[in-house]
Amino acid sequence: TPTTTSDTVKSDAVEDSAFLKACRREPVPHTPVWFMRQAGRSLPEYRKVREGIGMLDSCMRPELVTEITLQPVRRHHVDAAIYFSDIVVPLKAIGIDLDIKPGVGPVVEQPVRTRADLARLRDLTPEDVSYVTEAIGMLTRELGSTPLIGFAGAPFTLASYLVEGGPSRTYENAKAMMYGDPGLWADLLDRLADITAAFLEVQIRAGAAAVQLFDSWAGALAPSDYRRSVLPASAKVFRKVAGHGVPRIHFGVGTGELLGLMGEAGADVVGVDWRVPMDEAARRVGPGKALQGNLDPTVLFAGREAVETKAREVLDTAAGLEGHIFNLGHGVMPSTDPDALTRLVEYVHTQTAR
Ligand code: CP3
């Protein structure tokens, strides 16, 4: 029987799923598992349906998005689906000239470097991303009791692409703006917070059961800089979507020193990479939040026994947590054997069955 939530009708089965229970820190029948980048190049069926279609084009085709999002659910029996899209989709949708280059990542034609450039970042409306609403409607019907995770890039990670003009190892242009023109930087991140929150709200209204904010590159920042120059914008995103009552996950890479602050930004669940053990991460985040993580994605190249030993270690260090969602510490690498992922899901489920 459906229950009415703030804006959409969600089934009790989704609300009672192990994934949402773990997000809410309730007892679970087994530890839920999903993988960042579970849809994508590790799957032959993905490579087949994507043949000849550009990454951004594929994100705008609801039927293709639905098929790609469902592929890892069918194959691996993960406990949640993640909406197939990319963090730069909302920027493309408001007219920023950018592309995703294979093997490179997002490339922005005219980087955002000045106050005049800020004017190009207009508000996002639901009409700009009507294909997202359509795809999520199709998806939630197909998914049944499996929850769908919506996502967006966090203001800092989006700003890193916009200011650099593409992927960077050092973020020198972005950081130069942050240190050298803090007023412009704050306004840029605030604009991105509004766009990001609007994009997440579209996904929640369409039926996403949880949302994840990817601040993948926040680990490049010292805690004091994160607190002063980044946290306010991410906190604004979490505040703006709080009213919908769906769990909010906050993830970054190399963020061991930032875990407490990333929790403070307002998330319900904090994502942990493989560099910090789950019990230590729990101490850094503090009480009242679930944790997600944190198997090193390269372990999947090491053979079944090694995968199980390292997965066991994750489960053991997470055993005292109030809510644990098993995941990798970062995304599935494209050359990963998909069978290793299927076996890992089964291993976590059988090891944790209560
Ligand atoms: O299954 C899922 O997790 C959903 C799909 C997803 C994609 N991008 C699809 C994608 C998600 C969650 C993202 C988020 C994303 N995009 C992040 C944050 C997550 C992270 O990995 O830290 C970032 C930093 C990006 C930017 C981006 N987009 C990069 C670095 C790349 C890789 C470039 C490459 O070719 O190696 C992309 C492209 C992209 N996004 C691909 C996919 C499946 C690969 C392109 C393809 O399959 O043709």
Topology overview:
Elements: E1 2-4, E2 9-11, H1 12-15, H2 18-23, H3 44-50, H4 55-59, H5 62-76, E3 81-82, H6 89-93, E4 98-101, E5 105-108, H7 115-118, H8 130-143, E6 148-153, H9 155-164, H10 172-180, H11 182-206, E7 210-214, H12 223-229, H13 231-241, E8 248-251, H14 259-264, E9 269-271, H15 278-285, E10 290-295, H16 304-317, E11 324-328, H17 338-352
Parallel strand pairs: 3-6, 6-7, 7-8, 8-9, 9-10, 10-11
Antiparallel strand pairs: 1-2, 4-5
Helix pairs in contact: 5-8, 8-11, 9-10, 9-11, 10-11, 11-13, 16-17
Catalytic activity: uroporphyrinogen III + 4 H(+) = coproporphyrinogen III + 4 CO2
Organism: Streptomyces toyocaensis
EC number: 4.1.1.37
Give an overview in words.
The structure is a single chain. With 354 residues, the chain is an alpha/beta fold. The protein has a single domain (2-352), classed as TIM Barrel (Alpha-Beta Barrel). The protein contains 17 helices and eleven strands. The strands form three sheets. Strands 3-6-7-8-9-10-11 form a seven-stranded parallel sheet. Strands 1-2 form a two-stranded antiparallel ribbon. Helix 15 links the parallel strand 9 (269-271) and strand 10. It is globular and about 55 Å long. Coproporphyrinogen III binds at residues 36-41, 55, 82, 84, 86-87, 100, 102-106, 151, 214, 216, 331.
